[in-house]
Amino acid sequence: MTEPDLPVLTPTIVEPRSNDLLPAIREDLAPFLPALRGAAQLIAAATVLEFTARYAAPAMIDQVRQIIAPAPQHKQTILVEEQTTVRRRVTVVS
Fold it and tell me: For the segment 26-40, what is each residue's pLDDT rounded down to a tens digit?
């Protein structure tokens, strides 16, 4: 009995095709680029402002308050002892 021939994989060379779709999309979106850039800048500015308002501003406020009005000094209590000595001369007739 003869064995059937085994299937053989033949290598195929795939050449890259030129992508004609991307230039067409670029041409279609070209009129909208200024609006898209403006929207991207607005989103970036909003992100920076939100970060500043949430995290940086509270830390900066504490530092600015210390610069404007320094923290009050700790009060110190000093105990002063005072002694008065009274001397009188008493003469007794004996």
Answer: 888 899 999 999 999
Tokens, residue 5: 């021939």
Tell me the C-alpha to C-alpha distance, in Å, between residue 56 and each of 23, 40, 71.
Answer: 43, 23, 21
2: Cα separation from own chain's centroid: 76
Amino acid found at 52: T
Q: DSSP alpha helices (H): ranges in 1-94?
A: 21-29, 33-51, 57-68
Give me 51's structure tokens: 């970060």
- In this prediction the pTM is 0.41
